[in-house]
Amino acid sequence: MANSICDFRLLLLPAAVVFIYIQMRLFATQSEYADRIAAAVESENHCTSQTRLLIDQISSQQGRIVALEEEKQRQELECGQLKLLVKDLERKGLERLIDKVQVPVAAVVVMACNRADYLERTINSILKYQSSVASRYPLFVSQDGPHPDVKTKALSYDQLTYMQHLDYDPVQTERPGELIAYYKIARHYKWALDELFYKHNFSRVIILEDDMEIAPDFFDYFEAAAALLDQDKSIMAVSSWNDNGQKQFVHDPYALYRSDFFPGLGWMLSRTIWDELSPKWPKAYWDDWLRLKDNHKGRQFIRPEVCRTYNFGEHGSSLGQFYQQYLAPIKLNDVQVDWKSRDLSYLMKDKYTNYFAEIVKKAKPLRGADALLKVHNIEGDVRIQYKNQQQFEDIARQFGIFEEWKDGIPRTAYKGIVVFRYQTTRRIFLVAPESLRQLGIRDT
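The structure assignment produced for this chain is given below.
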């Protein structure tokens, strides 16, 4: 019996040890789970806090998005109103503005060299009409060479910008006896036009010489002509000059013509044309070079009946050639023409041929060597046909107009036709053999 009790006690000891071990493990597991639960609760609280913060940020961003949408709508509304305003200003024909500065119609450059007194007279004539439109026609004087009196005179005017071309490279003429001056002039023109178009970035330039006076409507005329130059690519340049613009041969200050002959003496060209001419500009005689048909490429020039410039330069590089006979008697327009109200669409290429043909068609045809005598007994316009250059020169000499041709083209001619007034308001048309056919007029 005693042994049985002893054996039972021995069994209780391991059971107690196992029980204690199980209790300890259970306590450790409960502590671990408690720690995990605490960590989970803390993590949940952090997530909740972050979620609330994110919700607040989203709400804030949504508020900004709404504000930006409202600002976008406001700006779109203002932009629409500005577009309507711009269209209204364009409709009313108001001048374009960039940064509150008017866009120039063209730069005006006076080409000078060594005639300070001539330059002063020219500048004063320009400023008389340019001052009120100075922002649209900025004035430049470009001097070729170092003549001190010319430079001093140009710098004495605050209303203009002075440029100086100093070229000390020796001149090699291509033919014996040629004047070096013509080579220097060609160099000066290229330099000055490159400066104005490429350095100053003008879209158009009006070229004058230092022995010219301008008409009261000079700037209005070129502004109207600028629109033609931009719209019609068959126009190479616009001139203010008529070679047959002497007092006895002109009448109508409103009349404009197209011509195959480059008039020069106060002319405007665009940068597009200069981009083409500048790389191949000639070494000398630039004006004769511009009159070559190959350089025209079928394009023509606009000229007035009554000149908008007057050339008083009896003494210069040309040594007064033609001055007394052709230049001194030129009539300078004295009528203030409102060019903005004039419809000049008839000068566009697609209209002008028919317009000019109708005028020529109505003129009474005359034939024979005594055509000049017959003119006196006829009222209205007259057309006289010439067979060749020699006959044209003979007829021109009788009337007193320019006889000169360049590259097969008489001065002022359009399709071989030279037009001028004679004695009264009537027009005389000197007509080449092929002219009527080109205009679609049956010879009668």
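Interim note for the steering committee: Confidence is low (pLDDT under 50) at residues 94-100. The first strand starts at residue 97 and ends at 98.
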